[in-house]
């Protein structure tokens, strides 16, 4: 396929700690909204930061520590992060199923050292180059190369869009 993500992602960092679960991301008391994702997205990360959904702007980043997305395998969690306008999630580590779900819904999730990023920092991410420029602190961070198949899926907006376009999944 060879598709690539072009351009740079730019936005503000919203910082969270370690062990942010899918219940923090998509609180269970709103489970009845699971078929109304725009409404559910109004509550994204509410249990970790009650003001997040009101303050996040298109292009902003979720930045967290270790074990992001632990808990259930619900695709709602990465889907509503993306629906809220977040352009990428930057974490030290992520639960494996959350990582896979994020890629499948077209939400880049980047594994990197997030200790030097502060809440509110302006970030610029180059997915192809594997760099994160913290424009507020004038520092550059790097993340591991994203496999070509994941770049292809992200470039199409997720696995469903990828399969619709190409009719199959090439491994």
Tags for this model:
single chain, 171 residues, alpha/beta, 7-stranded mixed sheet, 7 strands
Q: Mind sketching the topology for me?
A:
Layout: E1 9-15, H1 22-25, H2 37-41, H3 52-55, E2 61-63, H4 76-83, E3 88-91, H5 96-104, E4 109-111, E5 122-126, E6 131-134, E7 139-142, H6 148-156, H7 159-166
Parallel strand pairs: 1-2, 2-3, 3-4
Antiparallel strand pairs: 1-5, 5-6, 6-7
Protein model, in words:
It is a single chain. By secondary structure, the protein is of the alpha/beta class. It has a seven-stranded mixed β-sheet. The relative contact order is 0.19.
Alpha-carbon distance between the two ends: 11 Å
- Helix and strand sequence: EHHHEHEHEEEEHH
Q: What's the mean pLDDT score?
A: 93
Largest sheet: 7 strands, mixed
Bulk shape: globular
Radius of gyration based on Cα positions: 15 Å
Task: Tell me the number of strands.
Answer: 7
Q: Identify the strand order in the major beta sheet.
A: 4-3-2-1-5-6-7
> How much of the polypeptide forms β-strand, as a percent range?
15-25%
- Overall structural class, as computed from helix and strand content, comes to alpha/beta
Can you count the helices? 7
Helix content: 25-40%
- Poorly predicted regions: none
